[in-house]
Every structure is written in C-alpha cells, then in structure tokens.
Amino acid sequence: MEPPPAAAPPAPPSANVFRRNAVAIGFLAPAAILLGVWIVYPTVFTIVRSFFGPQGFGDFKGIDNYKAIFTTHLLLTAIKNSAIWIAVAPAVVTAIGLIFAVLTERIRWAVAFKTVVFMPMAISLFATGVIWHVMYIKDPGQGAVNAGIGAVKSWFTSAGVLQDGAPSTPTITGSVAKGFVLQKPLAAGGVAELGLTGIPPDAVPAAAKQAVVPQTKPGAIEGVVWRDFSPGGGKAGKVENQELGLPGVSLALYDSSGKKVQSAKSNDDGTFAFDGVSGSGYKVGVASSTFAAPYGGVSWLGSKLITPAIIIAYIWVWAGFAMVVIGAGLAAISRDVLEAARTDGASEWQVFRRVTVPLLAPVLSVVFITMLINVLKVFDVVISIAPGSTQSDAAVIAVQMWRQSFGGVNNFGLGSAIAVFLFVLVVPVLMLNIRRFRREV
Amino acid sequence: MKRHRLALFALVAVSVLAVAACGSSSKKSSSTGTNGSATTGSSNVSGKISIVGVWTGDEQKHFQAVLNGFKAKYPKVKVTYRSTGDNTPTVLSTAVQGGNPPDLASVSQPGLVTDFQKKGALKPMDFARSTVLANYPADIEKLGEIGGHLYGLIIKAANKSTVWYNVKSYTDAGVKAPSTWDQFIKDAGTLKASGSPAYSIGGADGWTLTDLFENIYLRQAGPAKYDQLSKHTIKWTDPSVVTALKTMGQVLGDSSNIAGGTSGALQTDFPTSVSNVFSAKPKAAQVIEGDFVPGVVASSNPLKPVSGYNVFPFPAIGSSGSNVVEGGGDELMMFRDTPAIRALVSYLATGEAQTIWAKLGGYSAPAKTVPASAYPDAITRTTATAIGKAKTFRFDLSDLQPASFGGTVGQGEFKIFQDFLKTPSNATGIAQSLESAAAKAYASGK
Q1: How many Cβ atoms from other residues are within 10 Å of residue A229's Cβ?
Q2: pTM of the model
Q3: B174 plus B136 within the same structural domain
Q4: A136-156 mean pLDDT
C-alpha cells in the first residue's frame, strides 16, 4: 500500500470522517452486495430450508432431514463412497504427480511427456466422463479397455471352430468352458449322437454338409456331432433333414474311469470314429478346445467396480495438474542441496526420500489439500460415467445432493440438508488451508 | 488474513450452497386470466386462438396442416401455434402464475393437467364430450376426466405395448410373431436354440423394465387392479404383483437368452438395446418397447421396415385378449372458454382432423375413426390402429407415481427393477422393496 497523498487539504474532522467512510462504503458496496446475494442469502436460505419438508415452508420437519442422511440406505452408500474417494484419490493423485514430476526432470522429451499428461486438464470433466464411459463398456466390441484386455487374452488362447453352443438334450452335460460329455455309456460298436444348439447359422463352418448318423461298426465307436436345430426348433436329439454336421469339432473318448483314451476330429458331415475300441463303459465328449467363446469383458460399469473405475478416470485428469504444480516446486529446490547430499554419498533413493520430498512438503500439501476439497465436491465424472443401473452404487454426497433436490425427487429440504452436511465436511479442510496461508504470510 | 478466510469461505459456500438455494417449492396459485365471454356460437364464429405445445420440427409442421384444415372450416378464426418443446411445463407454469396463459396447451405429462386443474386454471371441455366419445375409445376419453369433468384430451397417442423384432432372426429360427405369452416364451427358447439370444434389454435405463412390468401387470391382473396399484390403494406386496413379477422373471431369468447376459443388459442403455436388434448382425432377436423404437435408430438403421424389422402387439396373457394397450400421449387442455376455442377443440377431437395428421406420418391417432389406410406405412398401421382398437388403454403406471418412486434414476422403481434384473428369482423380495419405497414416497406427500 502506498502512503496516502500528503497534499490533501485539511478539512473539519467530522466531515472528513464521513467523506472517508462514504468512499469506503462506495468501494465496498459492490462486493458486499455480491457477497450478500450470492453467498450470505443462499447459505442462510439453504440452512433454513433444510429443516423443512418437500412441500415448502409450511412443512416443518425439524432435524428429520438430517436423520434421513444417516438412515437412508442410498445416502449411506453415498457417504461410504465419498469416504473411499477421500481416502484414495487425493493421495494417489499427489503420489503420481510427484513421480511424474521427478521423472520429467530426468527424461528426454520431457516437454512432450508433460504436455500429454497435462492434456486431460483441457477437457471438461463431463466430457472426460463420457469418454471413459464409452471406454469402460463391457462389450469388447465397443469398450476400448475390454478390447485391450481381450486382445492380450487372445494371444494365449487358441481359436476354436465354434464360438458358442449348448447341448440339445439333457443327456449331454457340461459347459462351453469345460466341454460337453454324452452321459450315455457306449460299448464297442456304439454310436454317439451329440446334438448342439445355440449356434447361429452363419457361425457354422462353410464346409459343413447335411449331418449323417453313421452305421455301427464293430470294434469302433462312431458318432455324429451336428447343429441340432431346424427352423421352428425341430426335434431335439434327432438328426433331421437340413440339419448340418459340424466339421472340425474336437472329440474325446473317455473310458469307464473317466480317463481320456482317444481323440478325434469330426468330418464335414459331422461324423467321427474312434477305432480299435473293445469293451464297454465308454463316454464321448466334445472338448472345450472346440469353442473359442468370445471374451465377454470385465464389468467395469457394474456395481462392484464402478467407484474404482471412476476414480481411475478422475486420477487421469488430475495427475497432470499435480505434476505441473509439483514440478514447479521441484524447479525451485536449490540444486546445491541435492549435489551436497550426493557428494556425501547418498544414493538417488536417499536423495529423493530424505532431501527432495521434505523440501517439497509445502507444495505437496497444497496439492493434497486442493485435491481433498476437489474430491469432496466431485460430481460430473460420477454422473457421466455411471450408467443408470449403477448410479446409486456410484453416487457420492454431491450427486445425491443434486439427485434429491433437482435430479427427480424434488425434495429440496433433504437436498439442502445434504448441502449443509457437505459444507460441514469441507470446513475442517478449509481451516487447514487457512492456517497454512497464515503461516506462509 | 481475515479477508482470505472470508474469500475462501465465500468460494466454497457458493459452490456448495448456491445450487441448493433455488429450491423453493412453494408456488402460489393465481388468477387464470380473463374469461372469454362464452356466447353460443354458430357457423359464424370468429376470434383469435393461441396454442402452446410440445410439438417441434416435423410434428409442428404436421400439426399446422391440421390447423389449416380448421381454417378452411372457420375462416374467421385465427389460430397461432407456438412450440415450446421440452420447456412446455416451465413455460406454462410461469404463464399461469403470471395470469396470462395461452388459450390451449398440449403437454406430455398427465400430472400437469391435474396440477393446473387443482389450481383452478383450467376450463372443462364437457361440451366436446359427445364428439370425443363418438370418436375415441372410452378408455382414452376417461384418461382426461377429473372429478367427472373432461379437462384433458389426448390429441396424439403413444403405444408402449409393442415388441420389435429382427425378421432374419425370426426366419432363421422359424418362428412367427406370437399372439400369446406362452407362445412368446416358447419362441424365445427356439430363438436361443437357433443361436440368437431372444431379448435385448436396455437395463441401464430403468424405465424399460418398468414398461415391461406394466405391460405384463395390465394384462395379467387386469385394468381394475392396475388402477388400484397406480393409486397405491393396493400394496406392491399384493399377490397379483408377485405373480406378474414371476411372469416377468420368465424373461429376465434366462440370462443366456439376453444379449450380453444379465450383467451386460444392466449396462445397455435404451438406444443400444434397439441397435442390438436393428442391425444386419443382430445381437438379439427382439426388443420390447413402445412405438418410438424405430425413431431411436432412424439415422443408422440398416434394415427396411417389414422385410428387415417388424413389430407385433405385446402378446396376450391368460384371458386378457389382444386389445390391451399401455401407452401415453400428448394432452390438450383449455385455459379459456370462447366459441372459437370450443370449435377448435371439437374439431381436433374428430377423426377427420386426426386423419390429416395420420397421413403425414409419425403420428398415432387416439381416435378410432381414423381409417387404417390413412397411415403411410405398414408399421405405423400396426402400432397406431392398436390404440383406436384398444378395449383397455392405460397410462404408463410409473409416470403416475411420485417422482421419487417412479421417475428418478438410481432409486425407487427404476433401481428396484434393475435389482430384479440382477436377481430375477427374488420376486417376493422385490415386491417388498417396491412396497417400502412406494410407501415412503407416498408418505412424504410428493
């Protein structure tokens, strides 16, 4: 502040005081009015409103709305989720920011790296949510995350001739993952009929021909595996006209102890044969390697994974911010101190742990507290990532505040109570921040 | 330092509280504007009429064509239509409160008609009752009645009792559009055996599930029970509800017969559930939703109507018969009473007026006097004529519930029916959850 100009002419003291006050009031008025209209009035209104029910001010409810916050299942879920957010997100964002900041000091292309990491900050949080929602879709044909996992998985699994299938009669048991077994015991000279359904017509290999039941042959077990379906359903378990054999199916012969003794592949008409068999008690099965069930995808948006999934998206956005702020703090650290430590024989880890981190502590706490306040208010990523079916599993306090008032329920009393509750939660963090401001000045 | 504290508090207070502050829910009713002197008019009516409504774009153009038909009959009446789109409820509430409502308004929310009627803002349309009854199925006329007087008139109807299917999937499986529920379920098994899941369910949007339940309940328990349930005069734990849930479980319980399985369906939003079926490589054979289904994929639909995709009415359950429709519609309400307005309302209720609109497409007439030949294509003919033929017509039940129970994402009916999709064997438990949520919503009085 500059000292007041000394050239002011002396005036009668009372008039002077009045004039000075008038000027002060004149300057304060716009700020005071804005504060009054935008902060004081809404705050008071919200607090008062929180004691009334959905019908308005005629509907006094006392502290019922506050009780509801802690007794309603939906709102308790929101509180639990907010607790998870607070415990995880700020710490992880700060840690990742620190790691990135230290790394960018040491790598080439640091500017490019920083730009890429910082880029998400340029996207609105709602758009981020929409992008991640699409990436998290369960169907690997649509969701990028599951498509990636599926691509990696496909390197380790061999492709089968069929994608899916189900037994046509209860005499066949098993699943696509374990393979199917015809429970009817067979002796040499027997014929196994393995009917499968649930196979789309265009998934049948192109070489397939009309299925044929083979003639019995002594000293062998023969059989047929075919798509046991004709339009309208057909007769289950019976080879009919227009029903195609399934070529290339891997079949296994098990002896009476359940041990696999032979394997075979089916022909174009679905027939197969196990030769050189004697005795009885054999069973025939379709090996699971026949099926390459497409990868179904992880249910990222399901009720179990939804909160971690949203937190990951949130970290993706804010890690860049943390990195830039911490990076600035890092640049301000005197190189001499680091050099001195290294000269004294400290390892790089010791330098980081004992010198860099303590010197960065004020910056780290700024980032951490900023994130804490941010996380308490998190709203848009949750709304935009969680599908309708898991909105209530993913909801945090701010989301329920909106949902209970504007988002359909129209219970502004409860919404106000949640707003006040959220405000109370933010207060300790604010105090912390204010104390830190004081210390700095 | 004081200033810092203040500024910080200020900032947070704004972000936390400003939103909640607008939540005043007290609304005063007010006078309803001038009363037109209602002289008995004859052929020589004149005057000006203003209409506000939800129809925009093509719908607005088509409605204008209907109004032109009116102008030909009453050349001295000047009618102006203004579209307010989705904002219509807000616009109307403000206009009514300000004492300057339009003469007529069309809305899609039946609750609004009741609201305005309670505030005394509406004029009864009893003068048109005979015209309406001559043209409409009795059930649709009744939807507009409040306390024995006609306050709402459905002008544009919607049919939610339809099932849409991929014709190729049906041909591959060798099944035809079923007319009974048992056949429908049997065909679903055949579809699965053919290699195509039968159902595509948009379970991420809870309302697709409530629609399915309501269709089943209306047919199985009958319209009388449906009305009681919609007013919550019987409980959701009523045996009829549990039976309907078990019937619904026949669809939801067969996870391998649902595109993406149950967990996939929970993450499928409604548009995706439609494109799952309306595709050259369908992920499922059929989707159960209303007459708006093809519109969802209008720009990306690779299939042709009738040969590529087709529709059949929701199958009959038990002895329900086939002329049962669950639906909705845009209701007309009247704020002023003049001979000119009366003439227009009576005109709009006729099959003659609605035929004009039907011919232009994208429209289902509530009037049974609109001939099937008026509709431009076979699909609309199926979905629209079902409304006029309906012996039983009921509004979407969840739309008649308090918003916290019937219309909020993540809670109430939407959430509980999604839980049902997750655990379809738990019909009794779901009925109990529905009842406790409904009881709570009704108790809080909204």
Answers
A1: 29
A2: 0.84
A3: no
A4: 89
A89 within a domain of the structure (yes/no): yes
Whether residues B140 and B226 share a domain: the answer is: no
Which residues in chain A have their CB less than 8 angstroms from residue B444's CB?
53-54, 411
- Alpha helices for B194-222 (secondary structure H): 206-220
pLDDT tens sequence across A58-77: 888 889 999 999 999 999 99
- Encoding tokens for residue A191? 């014929």
Number of domains in chain A: 2
**Across the interface, do B20 and A412 touch by the CB < 8 Å criterion?**
yes
Calculate the average pLDDT of chain A: 88
Are A172 and A255 contained in the same domain? yes
B144 and B177 Cβ atoms separated by less than 8 Å = no
Residues B28-38: tens digit of each pLDDT: 333 333 333 33
Q: How confident is the model at residue A5 (pLDDT cuts 50, 70, 90)?
A: low
Per-residue tokens: A418? 């949640």
Q: What is the mean pLDDT of residues B57-64?
A: 92
Does A188 share its domain with A142? no
ipTM attached to this prediction: 0.82
Which residues in chain A are contacts of B404 at CB distance < 8 A?
408-411
Residue B154 falls inside a structural domain: yes
Q: Give the domain range for residue A227.
A: 166-290
**One domain for residues B185 and B272:** yes
Range of the domain at B212: 162-325+398-443
Strands B392-395 and B145-146: unpaired
Residues B123 and B177 in one domain: no
Query: B293 and B429: one domain?
Result: yes
Structure tokens at B178: 């079923």
Residue B61 CB neighbours (<10 A): 11
Any domain includes A221: yes
The answer on B250 and B104 residing in a single domain is no
Contacts of B15 in chain A (CB under 8 A): 377
Give the position of tokens 């006094």: A60
Do B313 and B227 fall into the same domain?
A: yes
Q: Looking at the domain assignment, is residue B10 inside a domain?
A: no
Query: A60, A72, A369, A389: which to substitute to probe chain B, counting the most B Cβ within 10 Å?
Result: A389
For residue B68, count other CB atoms closer than 10 A to its CB: 11
Number of domain units in chain B:
2
- Whose structure tokens read 């009916």? B413
**Percent of chain B clearing pLDDT 70 (strictly above):** 90
Q: A388–B418: do the CB atoms touch at under 8 Å?
A: yes
Quick check: A78 and A396 in contact, CB under 8 A?
A: yes
Could you give the CA distance from residue A272 to residue B168 in angstroms, rounded to a whole number? Answer: 32
Instruction: Tell me what pLDDT residue B11 has.
Output: 44
| Chain segment B244-298, per-residue pLDDT in tens | 999 999 999 999 999 999 989 999 999 999 999 999 999 999 999 999 998 888 8
Task: Name the residue type at position B433.
Answer: S
Q: What CATH number is attached to the domain comprising B63?
A: 3.40.190.10
